[in-house]
Amino acid sequence: MRWLGAACLAIAPLLHAQGADPRATVTVGSATAKRGERAYGALVVPAGSDSGTTIQVAVINGAKPGRVVAFISGAHGTEYTSIVALTKLIERVDPKKLSGTVIVVPLLNVASFEQMVPHINPVDRKGMNASYPGNPSGSQTERALAMVAEQVVKPADVVVDLHGGDLDEDLRPYSYWMRSGNSAQDSAGRALGIAFGLDMVIVSDVDITNPARTRSLSGYSLLLGKTTFVAEAGRSGLVTAEETGMLVTGSLNVLAALKMIDRVVPPAPKINWVGHDQRVRADSGGMFYAMAARGSRVVKGAKVGTITDYVGRKQVDVLAPQSGVVSFIRGVPSLAKGSTIVTIVEVFDGAPPPWAKPAP
Ligand SMILES: [Zn+2]
User: Fold this and answer.
1) How does pLDDT run along the chain (360 residues), one tens digit per residue?
2) How far is the CA of 311 from the centre of ligand 1 (A)?
3) Which helix (H) or strand (E) holds 140?
4) ∠ at Cα 181 (180, 182), nearest 5°?
5) For the chain, how big is the Rg over CA atoms in Å?
6) Which residue, 110, 221, 334, 356, could crosslink 228 as a Cys pair with Cβ 3.0–4.6 Å?
């Protein structure tokens, strides 16, 4: 008891100092940054029912206080443009000139990246953008996401989730405005999505009372009351300076809009508001040939591609399921039963409609 009393005396001034600046020091995994510092480290996910993994992180703790923004990509480890963009963002944010804290996680799904397996974590075949809030005693994806949820998502005020066309996706760049129906949260997400600067925004309404809709990073972030949006650029394994630049510039624009860096947010482009995506999935395997370009406008019933068997005989044409814009179309011939062939988004006539509770 005497020992405890002495310890309390020693700790009291420290607690007071921490109360004045709760983020004088920020730690994520093994990365610890004091104010004005950039630190690198990792979330080390120990082995459990399957192997462990190491997710590298950077923490940029600004010299002055401000918001906490988490940038995350690589849930899909072969969406290279988004992953490369976030590695470049880290060096572009100067901790000495930053107000607030930036946490950057460029590559969540290391096994997907290293083994070049799209869409899933090949270790446990689970989706790393479909398993929040994770589970500390689950399989690798669940154990990793439990750490990301606690150490990256929960401390953040704003969560930016970056993606791109995967190995099999020829994708037109766009953002998602994820709406919960909470007007303050939705307008904050809209403002950051517009500041990001991509000129097509897919409006996606989420019912956060439906657990199935809060298992993605953005859905989970909405559930926790965070400001969030998703942006995508890149396609089919290509990494171009143009598309990487869109994501780096957009991320810097978000920090500027939050007044965390000294940068003028460029005027917003004219936004094409779209929504209600309809996708066509393959009924069986085959070889796919795209006949519509990413980003092109199509009318319902238009031929957007054709499928042959493996000796070149035509099997079926693929028709647009609705009128709208091709947000992405399959960029490779490979098809398996259930593969997404094309996604068409409806174009809103002017401003998007108000939030509506989606059907379960
Ligand atoms: Zn993705």
Assistant:
1) 434 333 334 444 444 444 689 999 999 999 999 999 999 999 999 999 999 999 999 999 999 999 999 999 999 999 999 999 999 999 999 999 999 999 999 999 999 999 999 999 999 999 999 999 999 999 999 999 999 999 999 999 999 999 999 999 999 999 999 999 999 999 999 999 999 999 999 999 999 999 999 999 999 999 999 999 999 999 999 999 999 999 999 999 999 999 999 999 999 999 999 998 999 999 999 999 999 999 999 999 999 999 999 999 999 999 999 999 999 999 999 999 999 999 999 999 888 999 999 988
2) 32
3) helix 140-148
4) 90
5) 22
6) 221
**What is the widest separation between alpha-carbon atoms in the chain?**
86
Q: Which domains does the chain have, with CATH numbers?
A: 20-257 (3.40.630.10), 278-346 (2.40.50.100)
Report the separation in Å between the CA atom of 16 and the middle of ligand 1, taken as the mean of its atom positions.
43
Q: How far apart are the CA of 162 and the centre of ligand 1, in A?
A: 7
Sign of CA dihedral 349, 352, 353, 359: positive
Task: Give the CA-trace dihedral at 93, 43, 160, 162, to 10 degrees.
Answer: 100
Rounded alpha-carbon distances, angstroms, from residue 226 to 100, 245, 358? 16, 26, 20
Is the full-model pTM beyond 0.85?
yes
* Dihedral, CA of residue 323, residue 324, residue 327 and residue 329, to nearest 10: 30
- Parallel, antiparallel, or unpaired for β 53-61 and 200-205? unpaired
Measured in Å, residue 206 CA sits from the centre of ligand 1 at 18
